[in-house]
Amino acid sequence: MSGFEVAGIVLGSIPIVVSALQCYMNGLGTLQNFRSYKRILKSLILTLKTEHVNLQNICEKLLTGIAPQTRIEEMIRDPFGDHWKEEEIFDRLRLRLWSSLQVFDDRVQDMREAIEEMMWKLNVGIDGKADWAESSSIRKQFKRATFILQKSNHEEALTRIRDGVSALQRLAVLNTDLESQRKSRSQGRLNKLVNEMLSGIYDALRSTMTCNCSGLHDVGLRLTPPSRTVVPEDDDEDIIKELRFRLAVSYLTGSQVNTSKQWNEILLKSGENSETSTVSFTAQSACPSKKMVGCDEWSLVPLKEVLQDPALLYGDKLRLAWMIACGVLQMQGTPWVADIPRSDDIFIAQKSGVPQFRHVFVLKQFPECPRANTSASPTNPFMLYLGILLTELILGQSIATLDLPQTQTLEPGLPRHILDYEAANKLLGRVMMAGGSGYYNAVERCLRSDMQIGTAGGLAKIGYMIKTYCQTSRLPQRNMPCFVYINGYPGIGKLTIAKELQQLLPDSKVYHNHLLIDPIDALVERSSPGYHEMRTGLRRYVLNEIATSEYTKDETWIFTDAREASAAGEMGAKDYEAAARKRGVSFISIVLECEIEENMRRAINPTRVASIGAKLTDKTILRPILEKEAIYRFGNDNELVLDVTKLSSKEAVLRIKEHVDRLAACP
C-alpha cells in the first residue's frame, strides 16, 4: 500500500474518531459528574476537525495538476475510494514529492498509527461507533470512562497528528514549487538513457541484419511517449529494465513473380545476464502465433500523405504531436532520425486503408546502405524543423503548400533553413487559431531554439521541451461533460448524427426531441388548447432533472431539436442553454443546414418513416417550412453551422466531434 493510499485512510479515519467523540459527548449530556469532561471532548473534536481540514487542503494541493479537476473533489469526499489506488496518480505524485516520498510515507504511516491508537482507546469500531458511549454504559464503567476521557491520555496521539499534518504541509508547498525544474531533470535523465539504448539497438540491427534477401527489410521503430517517472532514488539499470521498444520488421513472401510484403511486430525488453551482471535486450514476438495485428492488411504511409485526411481530427492531431515531439526528441542524435526531421520521415500505420493514428513509426532499411558523408553545419536546425513538422500537423498541410508570398521576396541565396524559418514564422498566427495557445507556445519554442547537439545541458533542454509540450498540448483522456444541442430542419438527419456522435463521445447519452413530442401527442391533438404549454412544461421538467441530478452529472448530453428563428423557437432553444448553465457545463450549439431537395429526399426515406412515429414526412407540410422558416441560431463562438448536403452522417459526425473536442477538452 502506497503512502498516498494511507493518506486517504487517515483523511477518512479522522471523521470516524470525531463521530465517536461526539457520541461520548451526547452520552455525557445527562450525567452531572462528567460535565467537566464535555469541555475536554469539545477541545478534542475541534482539534481533530482542524487537522482534518488542513489535511484535506494538503491532499487537494498535491492532487492539483496531477488528477483531473473533476476528480479531485470526488477523491476528497471519498478518501477510501479506488481513485487513491490509481497507479497513474501515484506515479505523478512520486515525481512531485521527488526525494521526499519516503518521508511522506513515514509521516502518514505515523499519523495512521496515532489515529488507530485513539480509536482503540475510545473503543471505536471501523463503523465509527463506540461500544459503550451511552450514559448508562458510561456510568457502569466509571473508572474506565474517566481514564479514556482524560485529555492527557490522547495528547501524544494528537501531537503526532498535528506534527504530521504540519510536516506534510511544508512538504506539499516546497515540492510543488520545485516540480517544474524536477520534471525537466527527470525527463532529461530518461531521454539520455533511452537515447543510448536506441543507438545500441540500431547498431545491433546493423550488425545482424546482413542477409542476402532480394529486397531490403523495412524496420519501423514505434514512437511512444515517456511512460516512466524518474526520481533520484532510481537506479539506471532498474530504469533500463523497464524500458520497452516495439519494432515492425518487413519481409517478402511469395514467388519471384508475385511477392507481397508482410510485417512482424517485435517487442524488445531488457534481459539480465546472470554471469556478467550486464543488461542486454532480448526480442520476442509482440503477437504470439500471429503477425502484427493482422499485418498482412497493414502498411506504413508517410505522415505527409495523411495530413489532409478528414479522419484526422483535432484530438488526433494533439495526440500525434505529443507522441512525435517526445519520440523524435528522444531519438535526436541517433541514426533513427535525420538531422532535419520532416513529415516524410514519420509513418502512420494503416489497416485496410484506414489510418491508425496511435501507431506511429520512424522507418529504416536494412542491410544499411552506405551513407554519404555530409559536411558539418555551423548551425543545427533540428529543433526548427521539429517546429515546422508540428506546424504542418496542426494546419494539415506541408510547409511547401503553405509558403507565403512574403517569404518569396526574401534576398536570394539565403540558406534553406532561414527561408523555412521565415515561412514558419509567418504561420504562427494560424497555429494559434488552429491549435490554441499551448500548442502555439510549443511550436514557437521550437522555432526560436538555438539548441546544439552535444552542447552542455542539451539533454536537459530536450527534457524541458518535452515537459513544456506535454503540459501545454497533451490531449486529455476525455472531454469535460457538456451539452451538445443539434438543431435542424425535420428530416435533415439529426437523430442519425446524434447516435453516431454518441459512439465517439465517452459517457454520452442522446435525448432526442421526439421523446418530448410523442408523449404529448399521445394525449392531445396539436391543435388543442394548452398543447404547447404541456410541451414546454415537460421539456423544462426533463431538462431540470438532467441539470440537477447527481446521477447525470458526469454525462455528456446530446440533444436534438427543430427550432425556428421565432420568439417561441428562441425560448425553447434557450431552455437547453439555461439547463447547461445550471449544470455548470459548456453548451455547444450545432446548426445543421441542407439544400431543400436533398432535405426532402431524406425526410421521405422509408427507413426514417419507420423509425419514430411522429416524424414529419408530408411533403406539402414540409416544403413550406423549408422554404419560409429559418433555423434558430445562437450566434456565439461555441456554435458550429454545418452544411450537410454533400456530407455523409459519418463525415458530419467527425466534424462535430472535432468541434466538441476543441471546446470541451479537460483543463
Automatic annotation (TrEMBL):
InterPro entries xref list: DUF7580, P-loop_NTPase
First and last residue of the signal peptide: none
Domain DUF7580, chain residue ranges per copy: 314-454
Source taxon at top rank: Eukaryota
Gene3D superfamilies membership: P-loop containing nucleotide triphosphate hydrolases
Pfam family, one: DUF7580
Entry protein name: DUF7580 domain-containing protein
Highest classification ranks of the organism: Eukaryota, Fungi, Dikarya, Ascomycota, Pezizomycotina
